[in-house]
């Protein structure tokens, strides 16, 4: 089943674009959620993608699922 709206049909959640700040051990990365009310840094898994610091990735459920722009 594919998603056609802004939210995932299986869990009603959306992927979020974030910027990779630093790669960590065990396929993890520190990411920046960007400007706004909920601006913060989070640790997410990058095991499914080849990301580098500065890349923008889509994250769903703390898992990077796609690289959308590379540095």
From TrEMBL:
It comes from the Bacteria. InterPro entries: Hydrogenase_HupF/HypC (IPR001109). Gene3D superfamilies: 2.30.30.140. Belongs to the HupF/HypC family. This is HypC/HybG/HupF family hydrogenase formation chaperone. It comes from Microbispora hainanensis.
């Amino acid at each position: 089943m594919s998603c056609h709206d802004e939210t995932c049909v299986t869990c009603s959640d959306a992927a979020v674009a974030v910027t990779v700040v630093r790669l960590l051990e065990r396929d993890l990365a520190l990411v920046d959620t960007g400007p706004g009310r909920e601006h913060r840094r989070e640790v997410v898994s990058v095991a499914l993608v080849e990301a580098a610091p500065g890349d923008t990735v889509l994250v769903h459920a703390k898992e990077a699922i796609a690289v959308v722009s590379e540095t």
